[in-house]
Design a protein that fits this description.
The protein has about 140 residues and is an alpha/beta fold. The protein is built from 5 helices and 6 strands.
Length: about 140
Amino acid sequence: MLVQQILKAKSDDGVVTVPPGSSIAAAAEVLSSRRIGAVVVSRDGKRPDGMLSERDIVRELGRRGAGCLSDKVEAIMTSKIVTCACTDEADRIMQVMTEGRFRHLPVMAEGEMVGLISIGDVVKARLSELSMEKDALEGMIKGF
């Protein structure tokens, strides 16, 4: 299965982004209101400058307390991000996410973001693929 197939199965809400100068509190509000686990930090909405996850925010809150909420997103975002392409295999992406210990990956095409996939999206797609394979094998065994 390819990343582009995973993107097609998702609702097309686009990639949720926040500017690097946004406050951490504003980013937390976006995460909460959208019920998502991470947001792409981007100056132009087309290219990722970083990623900010709910875990990043909780980690900083635990370390410094509520005072960090007025800081800028760029202070705590992950700036060294990994991306993928629409033509990447889901199995490889699952391995990259597992080894890198991150759950969200921007999808790039021609230098611009075209989507964002999560480890949950990849697992869901893989389970669907395995279910179809199981049904096909059962059909062959039973002679259908």
